[in-house]
Amino acid sequence: GGGHGFSRPAPPPQTGWERLCELWRRDELQQYPEETVNIIKSAFTGGLVGWLYGGLPAFRQARTAFIEGSQGELFQNRADAVQSAHRAGLRSFIRYGWRWSWRVATFVAVFNMVSTGLSVYRDKTTISNFASAGAFTGALFRMHLGLPGLAGGFLFGAAFGIPAGGLVMIVQKLAGETLQEKRNRERREQYEQKLAEWQSRISVTEVLGEMESSARGQSQIENSRRI
């Protein structure tokens, strides 16, 4: 195969480690696998939800506290007072929203990386993958509180991972195939297509080679006749 200037296409990843490495590798269109894109998307969504969860209550509380604490203060007009209250709320929205945002985004990212990694490595999607990912992520977030925190985080994470994983599996089942099944099908189809292209190129090259050698042989015969 190498003598023709191109080699036989590589077969799809066979081992768990090869499949894991493929998660961070771009394809011919310079795009990352769907699983990797989903990890990034879910982390961004989690960060947005966390910001709203932490920021909106803080905004309302800060605005209320400002209004109550500034009863005796003088403002130029009502609009000035309302703007000042909104600015106080906005500062609190940014401050507390950010605190929740990065925590939720990191939790979701770690959870999805571990659950996706387990599914890809084992080449199957099971509820145990999500339970394990949740337990690991929960323990990681609470380990700074010592052994009780570690145990509490482990149990909380597992309790979070099971319904979250169940929801993901239901959505995938409704779609007709899991991400692993879809990925394996696409890999197999791409490999078969590349293999067919390679085999046709090999055939064309061999035919051209035979034609070239026969033409060369004919030329030598004609030259010998002329001599």
UniProtKB/TrEMBL annotation:
Tell whether Coiled coil is among the UniProt keywords: yes
Record-level GO BP terms: mitochondrial respiratory chain complex I assembly
A cellular component term (GO) from this record?
Answer: membrane
Localized where?
A: Membrane
Main subcellular localization, coarse class?
Answer: membrane
- Which InterPro entries does the record match to this protein? TIMMDC1
Alphabetized, the UniProt keywords read: Coiled coil, Membrane, Transmembrane, Transmembrane helix
* Entry coiled-coil feature ranges: 181-208
What is the role of the protein in this entry? Answer: Chaperone protein involved in the assembly of the mitochondrial NADH:ubiquinone oxidoreductase complex (complex I). Participates in constructing the membrane arm of complex I.
The Swiss-Prot or TrEMBL record describes its family as follows: Belongs to the Tim17/Tim22/Tim23 family.
Q: What is this protein called?
A: Complex I assembly factor TIMMDC1, mitochondrial
Which organism encodes this protein? Answer: Odontophorus gujanensis (marbled wood quail)
